[in-house]
Design goal:
This protein is an alpha+beta fold. 39% of the residues lie in helices and 22% in strands.
Length: 251
């Protein structure tokens, strides 16, 4: 029987990423392992203790342990942000350019996070703003992007920017943290296909619940097993490498 008082007094838990709850689609494991060991860095980030807000799930036959998905999402973002300093959050792709902001006020956009070559992305935007086939509001777009990402100004004002000297050793990795309705998985996977048309995505990291964590969240949500089934069914259609992570929890 559930001890309500004890459970509601619980303040922390540990996230788990077990080997059995990882699945690699289209050579994602090799891509992540050979690029600055991103695989280990993400596992370490997602294997930490977090603060939780417990609740009682009353939508089932018997009251069971539950936690708030919104707060869990925030905690995971903090872990990723602290472990991967070059992580971009709330990233939206348009015409081959990824828009994001390093200011405190985040935009609501296409992907929850991304690891990308900021210099290459900046040159792509510059070409669209000031090149032969330029945006009508190119100057405005350019200044707005630099305003949102002031850390790029030093590179823009350097001689390397004019030389178009870009490092080529940074992969394009997009990421989603999904605890929502199960149908959102289809949207997420086809969203990355759209992004891949113009930018050649190296890998999508897809984080969703499994095990104990799955049971603590709402019913009918995206899960590790459901996502794996979708990827298996559409393996010839979804060509982007995907690292599927089933996130579990230990109280």
């Amino acid at each position: 029987m559930l001890d309500r008082e004890k459970w509601l007094g619980t303040k922390e838990a540990k996230l788990l990423v077990l080997d059995k709850n990882q699945w690699f689609h289209h050579h994602a494991k090799e891509i992540l392992s050979f690029n600055s060991n991103y695989k280990d860095r993400f596992i370490n980030a997602l294997s930490q203790k977090i603060q939780i807000i417990p609740r009682i799930k009353t939508d089932s036959k018997n009251p069971v342990k539950g936690i708030r998905a919104d707060d869990l999402n925030k905690q995971i973002r903090i872990l990723l942000r602290d472990s991967l300093t070059n992580l971009k959050e709330e990233v939206n792709q348009e015409d081959g350019v990824y828009y994001y902001t390093t200011n405190e006020k985040k935009q609501v956009a296409g992907f929850d996070f991304a690891l990308l070559n900021s210099e290459r992305n900046l040159h792509k935007l510059h070409e669209l703003c000031f090149g032969k086939l330029r945006y009508e509001d190119g100057q405005k777009r350019w200044l707005k992007f630099l305003e949102n990402n002031p850390d790029l100004n030093e590179y823009v004002n350097s001689t390397n920017f004019n030389k178009n000297d870009i490092k080529d050793d940074i992969p394009l990795i997009l990421g989603e943290i999904q605890f929502g309705n199960w149908a959102l998985a289809y949207r997420d996977f086809f969203k990355v296909l759209k992004a891949n048309v113009q930018t050649s995505v190296d890998c999508l990291i897809y984080i969703c619940p499994t095990g104990e964590l799955e049971s603590m969240l709402s019913d009918g949500i995206v899960t590790f097993n459901k996502s794996k089934k979708i990827l298996t069914e559409f393996q010839k259609v979804i060509s982007v490498p995907i690292w599927l992570i089933g996130l579990d929890i230990k109280i």
